[in-house]
Amino acid sequence: MEKIQRPIAAFDLDGTIxxxxxxxxxxxxxxxTGFIPNVFAMHMVQLFIQQNERQIPYRLYEEKLVRxxxxxxxxxxxxxxxxxxxxxxxxxxxxxYSFTTTLLAQLRQxxxxxxxxxxxxxxxxxxxxxxxxxxxxxxxFEVKNGLYTGGVASTVAHDKxxxxxxxxxxxxxxxxxxxxxxxxxxxxIPLLSxxxxxxxxxxxxxxxxxxxxxxxxxxxxxxxxIYVLQCGACTQFSTDDAVKAVRLITTECxxxx
Length: 257
Fold this sequence. Notes:
Elements: E1 6-11, H1 22-32, H2 38-52, H3 58-73, H4 78-92, H5 98-107, E2 112-120, H6 121-131, E3 135-144, E4 147-154, H7 160-170, E5 174-183, H8 189-192, E6 197-201, H9 205-214, E7 218-222, E8 225-230, E9 233-238, H10 242-256
């Protein structure tokens, strides 16, 4: 019997589901525990300060941090890093946004829900499963004989749209018909451009500009308030009413198709 096709629903992770950056949280803990050599930790701390003071763009900060992390992990045991990553995941599990977790809970009933993130697989994969996603596409640092080599086996950082296409070609039960995607930054634009129902969530400047040009709906969640911006209107909800916010945006997205 042929399996029924389900529309795909793609979520970014950092800043979309999780309130923060898993890469930052992991790197900070690796530095604090002494897992990373001091010479690298010092450079990472300087980089954290530059980013906190807005001295460098976030994308450049992230690229530099990944390069430093790759170099710092060379020759380190993956099994030891995973122990530290598990502590990060335990802290992160409840630090989520109301709108996106409510959206996920609704879409799990009807969609093939996946994560597309540039984050490390050691943290992203298990958290994605914990939060209820079917599949997680994340960055994989190369490991040989249980040790990090300092290289990258695979990454989705540069083209999340292509990652979505890969999922569609490898999973014959998924379709773009009725598809939805949500993300918070410039790197998510290729992903949002591929689906029928894109949503910009707490977007950075570049994504906000693109959303305005394309008339994509925008959702802002600050403290206990959710704002839905679409069709020239702004509707406000309490986070306790996240279900209503999700219902509004998914209903109007379908009507605009």
